[in-house]
Amino acid sequence: EDQVTQSPEALRLQEGESSSLNCSYTVSGLRGLFWYRQDPGKGPEFLFTLYSAGEEKEKERLKATLTKKESFLHITAPKPEDSATYLCAVQETGTASKLTFGTGTRLQVTL
Amino acid sequence: SAVISQKPSRDICQRGTSLTIQCQVDSQVTMMFWYRQQPGQSLTLIATANQGSEATYESGFVIDKFPISRPNLTFSTLTVSNMSPEDSSIYLCSVEDGYNEQFFGPGTRLTVL
Lengths: 111, 113
Description:
The structure holds two protein chains of two kinds.
Chain A: E1 3-7, E2 10-14, E3 19-26, E4 30-38, E5 45-50, E6 56-59, E7 62-66, E8 70-75, E9 84-92, E10 100-101, E11 105-110
Parallel strand pairs in A: 2-11
Antiparallel strand pairs in A: 1-3, 3-8, 4-5, 4-9, 6-7, 7-8, 9-10, 9-11
Chain B: E1 4-7, E2 10-13, E3 19-25, E4 31-37, E5 43-50, E6 56-57, E7 68-72, E8 75-80, E9 89-96, E10 102-104, E11 108-112
Parallel strand pairs in B: 2-11
Antiparallel strand pairs in B: 1-3, 3-8, 4-5, 4-9, 5-6, 7-8, 9-10, 9-11
């Protein structure tokens, strides 16, 4: 069965203090790995999809990378508006687009 | 990306009643999904709803409890039947675009008393 584990569960950063969030996964075959941002009371907001080891994608202060066993979401010089829960999800080959989510990392960025 | 709306945004219901949640998309999509996000937990797929066929349910979810309709390529409903407090959750619909990207609606926050 697919397993997605995110760490840390919670992270508190000061503004400008760069860090990384981790998503470890176990699937028989990876079709895609997804990153979402979720603000309280809202639905997840799509950030990135990664498909193969070595792939990287960037958006503003966020950069996602992928290896055969894990993905990292690097946050460079974060701002308070980056505070949210970041969710990782995997899509396994042979499944009809089903996403299996991790439990997320709650990020708080303070001034 | 697709723009997705859900109705209602929140509701408080009595035990034993049913609630139907609507999901509307601003463009035609083949695949729509319904997820549940229980308090403090992550998202779990309930079922996949494709137009013109019956919904496909994940393990632990059954049609009698969560009937789904998909009358066209822009709309779907999820009904939570015979509710109990354990059904209190956020229910989210999502759609997949032509690039294997899934976008989520704002969610429906359900509280069952």
